[in-house]
Here is the input.
Amino acid sequence: MLYTHAINRWDGSGATVDAATRTAQLEGGGLLRLPQLPFAFNDAERALLTPAVLEPGKKNISYDLARDRLAGVAGDAALQSLMHGMIRRYAQQSGALVEAMFPHYRGQLRDGRTSFRPAEIEGRVTSPKKDDTRLHIDAFPATPVQGQRLLRVFTNVNPNGRPRHWRTGEPFETVAKRYGRQFDPAPALQRKLMQMLKITKSYRTVYDDLMLRTHDAMKLDPVYQKSVAAEHIHFAPGETWIVFTDSVSHAAHSGQFLMEQTFYLPADAMLDPAQSPLRILERLRGQPLLN
Here is the structure.
């Protein structure tokens, strides 16, 4: 479900809907569209709007706010400094935005990676599991979330007037009934070894294993990709949108130049934890999944 909000500042100003309603929309599988909230570049930063700023082999530039660490940038010290300031500002403004829009989450959100994506999606050659033009829910092979939610803020910053074309699919519980109940998770010893060998950054719980298998099964199912009911959305330059990408199935079909910020939220910090993927999968499978 798509919900449009009149917020026009990164401090949350302009809201015409109360915070509880916004939070319920988000947690219920909604995508919150903010068509009046662009991210502003200064004159010097406009030089960053080119794929030439990417290191060879990279599809995006990433920034870790907690460690103040930038990665994936090709360029001299001056360009690195310019990129650092721009992407750090987006991280900080996104943090202010979600705290203003969803005060119930204050003190519970943890900053994830910030990314700048100057490359075109359409036509990118990649493996099926990494092909984000296929409908999927987000689950990361190397970064287990252990039940935490993936809350993400996106902004189309295309300087050439091109929209970002998304497709959204069926509700998470429908996806979970289709895929999430059919797998046996990997044995605990195997998942522990993956952590010890640094294949994963932390322990992959049963939940993480099931979410990753669901992500892969969706992308590898050509019949599903072609037949599932889906909604096409075109985000114009200057638009921002917010969504839980671990529960809203989505695909990015085309577009170039995007800012994105990820936040992690404990499932129990939600207004309604029963709507989290963790609790839905536990209910469907009849067992706890954080072991």
The chain has one domain: 2-284. The domain at 2-284 is CATH 2.60.120 (Jelly Rolls). The mean pLDDT is 95. The CA atoms of residues 191 and 197 lie 10 Å apart.
